Please model this.
Amino acid sequence: MISIEQAKQMAAKLKASLELRDHKIPYSIALEIVSHQLGFRDWNTAAATLLPQVSSSQIHFSKPIPILRIFDVRKAQEFYLEFLSFSVEFEHRFEPQLPLYMGIAREGLQLHLSEHHGDASPGATLFIPMKNIASFRNELHGKHYGYGRPEIVKQDWGDVMEVHDPFGNRLRFCQS
Model:
């Protein structure tokens, strides 16, 4: 059986694929389509079934999702979606002209990006364990991004590649 994270990734890929063909659908609709493809009545049923079962008496933490402060939606999209190839999981605004709160994901890594000044401070560093860091570096170099060509540095604890977003946040990818 697939995990809930895999189902969410499928929905994000479906949404992105349809957008490339000029068919925009909300992420919630993509989740519903994926749940039907997996044989569930709706997304709520799929999510409840796919979540790992934990006894109500056990303490259980899920993996954290860092929130990074952004100041310009277009620059954030250029960096996170185009350069780093994340997919949008959801976008939220309380009203059309109010700040954006957006969830993005790639290969199991989830981040939230926020224009809300109270959500996070710029200048954060994320430590991101990963595999195949050289392939990732080569992929990024192939995009010819005008604001960075990250390189891998060998440290005692592993191979490290730092990428800086336009808002002062640092993503430190590391392969042990």
Q: What stands out?
A: Residues 1-61 form one domain.
